[in-house]
Fold this protein.
Amino acid sequence: MTPFVAERESAPAVPTLTARQPRAIHSALTVLECVAALGAGVTAREISDALKLPRATTYRLLNLLVEDEYLVRTPDLAGFALGAKVTQLAAVASPVRITTAARLVLAETRSALRGGVHLVLYDHGRVMVADADPDFPLSDELRLVREPARYALGRLAYLESGAHDDITRAAAADLARYGATRQLGENTPGTACVARPIRDVDGRLAAAIGFSGPLRRAQEPEEVLTVLRGAAERLAPLLT
Amino acid sequence: MTALERAIARPDPVSDFGSRSPLHGLARRSVGFFDVLAQSVSAVAPSAAATTVVLLVAGVEPSATVPAVLLAGILSLFVAQTVSQFARRFAATGALYTYAVRGLGPVPGLAAGAAIIVGYAAIAMFALLGGAYYTSMLLGALWPAVHGPGAIAGTLLAEALLLVLVLVRGIRISSRVALVVEAVSVAIIAALLVALLVRMGPIDPSVLLPADGVSLATVGAGALVALTAFVGFESAATLGVEARTPLRTVPRAIAWTVLVSAVLYLLAAVTQVAGFAAIDGSIADSASPINELSAAFGLGGWGVLADVGIAASFLACAIGSATALTRVVFTMARDGVVPKAIGRTHRRWGTPTGALIVCLPVIVLVPLALVLAGVDIRAAMHVTIALGGAGYIVAYVLVCVAAPVFLRRIGELTVGGALMALFSAAALTAALAAFFIVDAAGGGAVVWLAVAVAMAATGAIAWRLRGGRRLPERIGTYDEPIATQVLGGVPRADQAAGGDTVRG
């Protein structure tokens, strides 16, 4: 469990914690740990007994974790199971390793484009940051993992989730027109992103290379895309 | 490697969950906190109630107004906390109906459902009538040709048209319209009240406290009238499926609705009581206290603005109550309590069209028929709000009794939660009894109408269960987490074969 705590506290994008919260995070992770150990369907009372936490505290922690979907209640409402969202804790905690050849391609791409160039991998619809540009850091790595629909790199995964809304319609149109998804200053005014998918031999989405920079260069993305397309083509055999 | 890391790396299959929610078809997770807040605030209609109900409370005993409003606010907060015991644990569009089913079983659950349906429907009718009354009054001031039942029926129809339009077109539109309209009306009324207070200057605090010889029972009687101004705060729960992170936003919206309403009512009570004390008038004898105070303190033109705010608040109330009503009826259809066809939803807009087709004609045609039949609009408003208030309070009582039973069943009962729920149930029952006694003593028709409606509901429930006809096994459906939301989730066998998409 310590790696999660350490990572969360050292990650730059995590919202600032007030003095009382680190303890609460510790308790919350202890509860998640307990549900993982005791298995799906464990009740609040069993958790409270196992952790020797006061009942009311346990109930409050459980309800908070259910609100955030790190836990879900079983259909009879009495038991708890781990939510799919707990994988995001691991997504931030465990760095993904990529080959030196892929790193070289990224370095060349970065010198060709003035702006941030990032590489992400996808695993079962989950976004994992493999190599973020050290000179132009991702605006919010945790949020990219949590709310993929808000980012160009996340929208590629969001499109595959089967959702149907305004975002997927716009993203599908971009993908058809440019072979890439875009985010046009929706999170930070004036800053936009373009993401080019990298697919495996079966055509499944495996990774993506993203550019972030001034809005203008994403509104007329041809210049950026010429570089990204070449990079994606060279990265594909190195990643899949 | 810890258990959590192991679980994430190699999840154990969990097959307790379905591939889609039983409440699929609504626009799932599409509105944020402020839209959810707008839903319950508009169902309460605080700016309309701040002027009308405070006058009724003052009618009991003017000097008891402020303490009575405070008392009613505290009781409402207790009920809100108890309702949130459910709302924090699962998202259910059936709200009080589903909560009562989950706590007490099908028959008390259906009783709560019938009560809250009467509550939402009657308040929606009341709001349409009120909106038509104030709007036609405002229009009449501009064009004297506009008057009489014809004008009221015309404005009523126009309002109904708008109501149908926003409700069919989707929750994002209807909640946003309710949000804007309600925000404008609360802002107008609050600004007017603050302006009046500023004009009035320093207040003698003793006028706000019960005068000598005013008993606690009188304050209690005032509080039960004031309670009717708060009902509707729970209706945020009916957006359980449509709200983003409902388990967080719904309880928060419920609590904030009570707080916003309480602050506005206290402001209105203090302003009116102190205002009439300052001009040596009698608030209880005043027909339109805000207008009279505005005139007395040199804010004459503002009275019209207040009427605009009140008319807007009534419109938002009609939208909010109708939204809540249709969600409850929709849930009953999904439960198999009423015909399944009523549980249909619109493919694109995600609105409960089946429930809309059943509910909207009733809440539009009843008030229209009353107006056209020549019933005095104020009398019609009095009957609908009293009946609606009674429906709400019956449902609240059942849910407050259900809460400790439910919490005990899932093993999460706390002493504080149980005490709060049982105290609320007792206080609400007393309030309801007192309400009926007062109404009957006044020769009111409401108590008999309520009895007739209750008997009709009992008949309907008995008919539904006739000859031991069983209810579907899983009555009390809520927005269950779906398999993809669970670590290692594998869809339940009974649903996996359908290959349903997880649209919602």
In short: The longest helix of chain B spans residues 106-142. Chain B has 17 helices and no strands. The two ends of chain B are 38 Å apart (CA to CA). The interface with chain A takes residues 2-9, 11-12, 14, 16-17, 88-90, 102, 245, 247-248, 409-412, 414, 416, 480-481, 484-489, 501-503 of chain B (CB under 8 Å).
